[in-house]
Structure formats: structure tokens, C-alpha cells
Amino acid sequence: MQQYYAVDVGFGNVKGITNGKYCIFPAVIGDFSPVSFTLGKQDQQDPLSYTAIEYNYKRYFVGEAALKQSDGRNTIDRDRTILEEGMVLLATALSVLSQKRFEDIKLVVGLPEMHYSSMKDEYRNVAEGIHEINLLNFSGEIVRSLSYNVKEVAVIPQPMGTYFDYFLDSDGNFNNDRKKYAVGNIGIVDIGFNTLDLSRIDALDPIGKRSTSYPLGMFGAFQELSNEIYQAFGVEIPPEELEPFVQRKEIFVFGQRKPIHEQMKTAFTTHCEKILSRIKSFWPDRWELTKVLITGGGSIYLGDYLKEEFKGVAEVVPNPIFANVNGYLKYAKRLWG
After folding, report:
1. For 232, how many CA atoms within 13 A lie in the half-sphere containing its CB?
2. Does residue 62 sit within a domain?
3. Which terminal residue of the chain has fewer beta carbons within 10 Å of its beta carbon, N or C?
């Protein structure tokens, strides 16, 4: 029986879902080399912390393992999704979501607005077909061999996932409680790690000339925060390593607890002003919007700053980190179900 899979290969994290099972891991790969001694943690319950795979005759650490065991690569090139790095991340998500030895699947994936038109056909072509994956232990031994036959692929603009998640029910039908908004003039503000996507849907029709992307994701906000922390405490933390500290709202300097609430407020306010400037320029007709959905991992930190611009019609969507990929799966059911 064919299964529906949804995978969002972002610049910060990879998210995936099938049959109620979710995965999320850092969008980082690294060259594999055997680890001579381990504490046996690969036998524990969280495979995402210890991921090593063989794909297309090459071996990689992926996600947390790449960050810890190798010089992890996280490219922000436009072509990265359809090249080696992106396909390794996609294959890893498939292997984590289902460890069946062979499975026929149908897959929905997404691209940023600015890359969608030029890359959707190529992404579909490289994602279709058979993906053979060997799961490795850290000694380099093959633990399990998997094969996925991707029979069909649908590629959609990433923010449309949030639209489908918000307005469709779990079977892919329009949610009656929200249908009155679905036929209105909808704006989506999707704050990813490296990109800000702006999308417009008017009476169920995506409006291409009112949809675009900017390099204004959370990486820029974390750059601002990195500078604020350095000025306050003399500590250099690279932007790509800041999120765990942001979640705790503190750092430890030589064992002493240092709250970073004020630094976060300053950095995030500055970055939101840049985002709002782009929104105002690109959507001078934003007064026409009947609903604005703020989504993406960055909305957790920046969403409340942005809502005020839209005079009560904006909301941060539930579960914004997974909203796009949830919507991909609902779209799969609507398309093929």
C-alpha cells in the first residue's frame, strides 16, 4: 500500500511527517569517519541523535551527529535542495519516518517562494524514483538497508503548507469553521532560518506577483543577538549555535548564569523593523487582507512583534514549526486521497 509522506528540507531544520509520526533534525551533513569508541548510546530510543547513513555510495553523519562528529555542512545556496546535501537530508528524513525495508510512497515537498518557479521541476525529477539507504552504526557497520520508491512528487511553495494546515482538516477537506476566511484575501508571513517568505492567496488563488522571498530569516536576528551578547558579556557565540540559549533565555559564563532577556528584546526588535520595512514596501495594499498567518520557526520569537502591524487580523499559527509540513500532508490527501 502506498503511503503519503511530507518533508520540508529547510535551511535550519528538516521536518517530516507520515501517519502521525514526526521528525525534526538540524539540516546539516558531514563526511563520515568511523568512531573508534562509543558509550553504546546508539541503542537508545532517539535515533536522530546518532544518525549515520550511506546514500549513493557515500557515507555521511547527519543532523546532531554531523554537528558533533564532523565538520558539518549547512549550505544556504539556492541549489542546495536539489544537490547532494539536500537529497541526503531528504533521504535521511524518509529513513527516520519509516524503517520499513521497502515502501512505495507519494511525497509532498516545498521550496521557498523565490526558488519555486525555477526549481520545482528539477526538484520533482531528483526526488522521484528509488532511494536506497543504508543505516550505519558509528563503527561504520551497516545496521539496516532501506529502499523507498517515490512514485509521485508534488512540489509546492513552502508557505502554502501553512495555508493548507490552517484551512484543511485531517482528511484534506476545507474546515467548515474557517472556510469563510479561506475564500478571502490571505497573507502568509513565513519566517524560516535563512528566508522570509511572503505569500498571498486571494479567493483560493495564489497571487504570484504578491509573493516573494527575502534573506531575512532568523539567522539575521541571531546575528544581531550574537553582537548584543558580545557587547554585554564579551562572549562570542556563532549565530547558528544560539537557538538553545534563546530557548533558555540565558547563557552561562564560567559557571555564572547570565540572563539575555534584554539582548533578545533589542536584537529581535531591530530585526522585526527590517522585516516590517520589506512587508510595507511589498504589500502596500495590506489593508485589503482579511487574514494574516504568521508561521515558521522564527514566528515563535518574532510573531508577537509583527502582529501589531495588521490591526487584529494576524495570528501566529498553532505549532508554527510544523505548520508547513502538516499542510503538505493534508495537501497530499486532498491531491491523491
Report:
1. 20
2. yes
3. N
Q: How far apart are CA 289 and CA 277, in angstroms?
A: 17
Task: Cell 535551511: give the residue.
Answer: 11
Give the containing element (helix H, strand E) for 172. Answer: none
- The boundaries of the domain holding residue 127 are 3-159
Residues 6+ away with beta carbon under 8 Å from 152: 106, 107, 128, 336
> Has residue 117 been placed in a domain?
yes
Three-class SS state of 285: coil
Angstrom CA distances, 51 to 20, 34, 58, 87, 127, stand at 21, 13, 14, 15, 21
91, 130 in Cβ contact below 8 A? no
Total domain count, the chain = 1
Nearest to 298 by CA among 246, 262, 248, 260: 246
The per-residue pLDDT for range 72-107, each reduced to its tens digit, is 666 667 788 889 999 999 999 999 998 788 989 999
What is the crossing angle of helices 299-307 and 261-282, to 10°? 60
- Using alpha carbons, list the distances in angstroms from residue 134 to 45, 51, 225, 306: 19, 11, 40, 44
- Residue 105 counted as domain residue: yes
Q: Is 66 helix (H, G, I), strand (E, B) or coil?
A: helix
Residue 143 maps to which CATH number?
Answer: 3.30.420.40
Q: For 167-208, how does the pLDDT look when each residue is reduced to its tens digit (9 = 90+)?
A: 999 888 888 778 777 778 999 999 998 899 999 999 888 888
Quote the pTM value.
Answer: 0.89
Examine residue 149 and state whether it is found in any structural domain, yes or no: yes
